[in-house]
Structures are given as structure tokens and as C-alpha cells.
Sequence to fold (181 residues):
Amino acid sequence: MSGGSGRIDVLVRAINAALFLSHGIRKDSEITIHLMGNDRPRRIRFDGSSIWGLHPDERAIAGQVSKVLQEPLPAPGMWVELHPGISHSGGDMITTIEEWDKHNITMIKLDSDAPMISDHFEHRIENDLAFFLSDDLPFTDHEISALDNLAIPLSLGDNWLQGHIAIGIVHYQIDNGLINN
Fold:
């Protein structure tokens, strides 16, 4: 998930949707947000399998993001855990794409113009799945080029959905076996 400097609310809702259930945390989910607001991009990863002490309200999540932003920026590719389940690293979306490609992760770019996601998964996917979605701004040409080389473009429908809603739909489809993983 990519975000501009003034759109923390969009990212916070996405983090909430990616990690929280009604009464608990999704242990099989993580979200990496990309903060591209300055010349030194930062990635923040929230890992549901090891996170604790994070509450599902937007103010608490925004506070955790704020704490991360006060920390010195690590080098791209060097992940530093600041709190159980919350890590950060330098790097942009291209850095993430390259890392996930090395780990043989099946990457999916959510795109309203692509084939429907529900029509794509006819057999079980053995690799971990990663979904790329942008915030209120589209991906850059450079990001699109990198994704077009390595990610499967799939759609959740004809409309450009808000990120947290798209995440909820993907979770629903995975939870109900519509996406086999």
C-alpha cells in the first residue's frame, strides 16, 4: 500500500482492515505501507503473527505510525523491529517488489481494468500471496512497470475502491475459499 505524506487516514484504515477481526488480530496477515512523502521513502510493516498492544482505533494506529516516523530511517532492505510486530525499513515499492520476488511470493496488483479475481483462482496457490493497491493516488509509471513484470493484475470490480474496502473483500474471498491459499 502506497501513501502520500498527507494521507495517513487512508493508510490507517488499511492497516486496521488488514489486521483486525471483530475480536482479535489476523495472525496470518501483514501489511506493508509505503510512505513516499519525501526524498527518502520509508516502509512500515505490521505483522499480525507477532504484533501485540495495537488497538483497532484509528488514533492508536496513527500514533504507532507517528512513533515510527520519529525513528532514524534504516537503509533500504534493512528491517528494524521497533515493537513486536512493527518494523520499518528504507525503500520504496520497487524495493518491496524485489524482496518479495526473491521470496517467491505470488504478487497480485489490484486493478479495476483487469480480469476478475474470482475467475482466476482455479487451483490452490502454494506460495504466500501479496496484494498491491494504491491509496487515493494511482501507482507511478515506474511502479506500474515493475508490477507489470512480476504481478498478476486482477480486479475486484469495475470501481476503484477505497483501500480498506478492497482489503476487506480480499479477506472475505480468502476466508471463504474463493481464493485458495
Notes: The domain at 2-175 is CATH 3.40.1280.10 (Alpha/beta knot). The chain has a mean pLDDT of 89. The longest helix spans residues 163-175. The CA atoms of residues 37 and 69 lie 11 Å apart.
